[in-house]
TrEMBL record, chain A:
GO terms for molecular function: sigma factor antagonist activity. It comes from Larkinella humicola. This is Iron dicitrate transport regulator FecR. The chain crosses the membrane at residues 87-108. It comes from the Bacteria. Keywords: Membrane, Transmembrane, Transmembrane helix. It holds the Pfam family FecR_C. InterPro entries: FecR, FecR_C, Ferrdict_sens_TM. Gene3D superfamilies: 2.60.120.1440, 3.55.50.30. Residues 119-213 form the FecR protein domain. Residues 261-323 form the Protein FecR C-terminal domain. The keyword Transmembrane helix applies.
Length: 331, 222
């Protein structure tokens, strides 16, 4: 198919300056639908060359974005070809939008139940869970863990934690990432490793046993991330201050009597973490305020019981025996 | 806000084959220049939409204003077309080029608007409305859309100078009667007279256009 019309002739015609012969030729050419795409392409070029006015494109775009955000989810299945409709046909789809919004609002409370399974522990209770992928979670007292019912086989495994949990993540052959979220602003991402997360109102602590983890957090609108090494302790205070340091070093059993343990504003939570991880003593804190208290100084402790005694004396707290271990409580 | 440096495919004449050569595959060139838009839509519709908007909003407004002769109306009309384009996910279904789709939509909307504003005197209009909705544009429509905006252009050119100036200030610039009166140092009453004269003239000139359009459309659909 050849074009009987040149771009130049079309431009003359569009400007209203074509001779009757040219005009007739162009009109014949336009009547062939196969020429429409070319016509529109040239029409665009012509408009670009002779703009009637320059609209404030940025302002218009801002307005458009606002409008789109208000009615986010686009509705599909409409006629793809432009048809002659009145300029504003709100009435046509607005009822559906309202219906959809109402339905959505009704479904939101149910959504979490449908898509997530939530494990809870009560005060003083500890649960050992094994997730579908083999990851082991020890859910500590008064905590909850939300695990997706479906979608654990997508590219990330994501769980939501409130309270405290010790994770031992299995490395998947396809390097599927495992993400522990504690809030919208804070998440820990791993491939395979062992770590403990403490996410309560007062603070969020992350202690890494082995492997490597990545922590993503946002401060205001800024997004940050950092990588933790084994033995690191990350603390996020309620005020949003982030603090990364090494956990107090626990010397090997044979050297303990000589060197002792040095604490420097070490939180009770940390000491308990060390008792569990290094001394194998099952000890839990039930009071959040107690977990925040700190101790300082150099202590000699050959074994777990001696360290525990030091803790009880220094802080004037009491212990309570449970089926699985010990509970630390404020006096 | 991210900024993009993109070659505007519409303003590099050397990339564009001359008509005689273009005759072989006219559609391919459109597709080529819009390839990046299609890719963007595939990856992230919102991003694709942003690019599409930034690319075509201005020329489409310029085209729409040739019909409606009002900045505000032209922008509203083009925005509405873009909005519907995104909302109905038309970008998934368009088989022609995006610009072809958008031009068709804008020209349709401009036509509809003009006919509502100036075509009410036609008694047949009420019935043709039903024929129009839901149909694809007929082969003649491009010619008639062109005739329509050329007729509007002629009609406004024919107005006496002062009348035209008042009309453009009011309609195109969307200025208030009082503002125009102050600016041109005439009374508000005179402004009113000029504008009603201009509108009357426009209505008369367009009446012939409507007659042709309406006949053709009836022929086509009946």
């Amino acid at each position: 198919m050849n074009h009987s019309v040149s771009k130049h002739t079309l431009f003359t015609y569009l400007a209203g300056q074509a001779t009757p012969i040219e005009r007739q030729t162009v009109e014949e050419w336009l009547k062939n639908p196969a020429n429409t795409p070319t016509f529109h392409e040239w029409l665009l070029e012509w408009e670009m060359r002779s703009l009637q006015f320059v609209p404030d494109q940025e302002a218009a775009f801002e307005k458009m974005v606002q409008r789109l955000d208000q009615t986010e989810k686009p509705e599909a299945d409409e006629e793809p070809m432009p048809v002659r409709k009145p300029l504003f046909f709100w009435g046509g789809w607005k009822p559906y939008l309202v219906a959809a919004t109402v339905l959505l609002a009704l479904l939101i409370p149910l959504r979490n139940k449908l898509f997530y399974q939530t494990h809870y522990t009560t005060y003083g209770e500890t649960k050992t869970l094994r997730l579908e992928d083999g990851t082991g979670v020890v859910l500590k007292s008064n905590s909850s863990l939300q695990v997706p019912r479906f979608g654990f086989y997508t590219n990330i495994r994501e769980v939501l934690l409130t309270g405290e949990g010790r994770f031992s993540v299995t490395h998947q052959p396809d390097h599927q990432r495992f993400v522990v979220k504690t809030s919208d602003q804070f998440q820990i991402e791993v491939l395979g490793t062992e770590f403990t997360v403490y996410a309560r109102k007062q603070s969020t602590n992350v202690a890494l046993g082995r492997g490597k983890i990545r922590v993503d957090y946002s401060r205001g609108a800024d997004k940050h991330h950092l990588t933790m090494k084994p033995g690191d302790l990350l603390t996020l205070s309620q005020q949003g201050n982030l603090h990364l340091r090494q956990l107090p070093t626990v010397p090997p059993a044979e050297a303990r009597s000589k060197t002792g343990l040095t604490f420097k504003e070490t939180s009770v939570w940390e000491v308990c973490y060390l008792l569990r991880e290094k001394f194998g003593l099952k000890v839990e804190i039930v009071d959040d305020s107690l977990a925040q208290r700190t101790i300082s100084g150099n202590y000699h402790a050959d074994n777990a019981d001696e360290l525990l005694d030091v803790l009880i004396e220094t802080l004037e707290i009491k212990t309570e025996k449970t089926g699985t271990g010990l509970l630390l409580k404020n006096n | 806000m991210a900024t993009f440096t993109l070659l505007n495919p519409s303003i590099s004449p050397e990339n564009r084959p001359t008509p005689s050569i273009a005759g072989e595959k006219p559609v391919t060139t459109v597709y080529d220049s819009e390839l990046f838009l299609r890719k963007a839509f595939e990856q992230e519709p919102r991003k694709g939409f942003e690019l599409l908007f930034r690319h075509y909003y201005t020329p489409l407004c310029s085209h729409a204003v040739r019909f409606v002769y009002s900045r505000q109306l032209a922008e509203d009309l083009v925005s509405e077309v873009f909005y519907q384009f995104y909302r109905t996910e038309a970008y998934r279904k368009v088989h022609s080029s995006f610009i072809s789709y958008l031009f068709t939509a804008v020209r349709n909307e401009a036509y509809t608007h003009l006919r509502r504003e100036f075509g009410k005197t036609d008694s047949i209009d009420a019935t043709t409305e039903n024929h129009l909705t839901g149909h694809q544009p007929q082969p003649d429509s491009e010619v008639h859309f062109n005739n329509l905006f050329l007729a509007v252009n002629d009609a406004i050119s024919q107005l006496p100078a002062q009348c035209r100036r008042v009309f453009l200030l009011s309609r195109f610039e969307n200025k208030k009667y009082e503002e125009i009166a102050t600016e041109l140092q005439i009374s508000p009453r005179t402004v009113e007279v000029h504008i009603s004269k201009a509108l009357k003239h426009l209505r008369q000139t367009l009446r012939e256009e409507w007659a042709v359009l309406v006949c053709l459309i009836n022929l086509f659909f009946c």
